[in-house]
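B., you asked whether I could sanity-check this one before it goes into the benchmark set. Here's the sequence:
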Amino acid sequence: MGKPGTSNKNSEQDTSKQIRHTADVVAVIRYKEGEKESPLIYDPFARLFVSPQGEEMLKTALKSWPFFSDYLIVRAKFIDDHLRDLCKKEAVKQIVILGAGNDMRAARLDFLKGRKVFEVDFPDQITNKKQILKNELGTLPENVICVGANLKETSLSNTLSQAGFNREEKSVFILEGLIYYLTPEDVDHLFEELFNISPPGNFFLLDHISPDMSQKSPDSEKSTKLPYPEDSVSYLNNKGFKIIESALLGNLTAIHFGKSYKERWWVIAFTK
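And here's what the prediction gave me:
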């Protein structure tokens, strides 16, 4: 029998490893998109995070979800476009990316230069990403603040404050591919914290999938009851937020790729 807490620690490490490999899948998809003649999004840094595990996981995912790559690309496009508009029109000073994974928006989006970008993820994910960037690029983008934290065990408010987050400055929070990995209690607590630390006028960008779609997920970590109701718009409204736009990814793929899918996977832009 291991020492007290060993099982929980090992479970946390396994979850963190699984999530890190999932982040590698996203990198593979963005890299492949960037190789096209006219990519919808272009991430020149995605190649740094391509891994054999990510390649294999993508092959598996596409067998079950043939729309997977298209969905992740239009999801990123939706978030990028809203983020660009908000930075231009709303004088946004800070961006907080929760579950940042291998996100490189701070480097690939010129309009984020001069704005603080807080990247929050498991400590080992942050360490791994920083090491890759140091080896390949020599440095991190100067406006990036890396925050290694397990949000199930620490207060988001305290974590961000210690990292230099200013509650009084207008901010955008990005929750891309995050809430699938949280329990219902974790999600409720997360949105309560987001509401409490955000003055009116802050913005949020989120994606989520329907419960029936979750059961078909090729990712065992996601094949459980989702931590939010089918009607996420009502869920967010009941938490005190206001919806700016909600879109089905299948409709976005029809617009951008000429491919229409039925699977219910949404992206939402909302504010307080």
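One thing to flag: The radius of gyration is 18 Å. Otherwise nothing jumped out at me.
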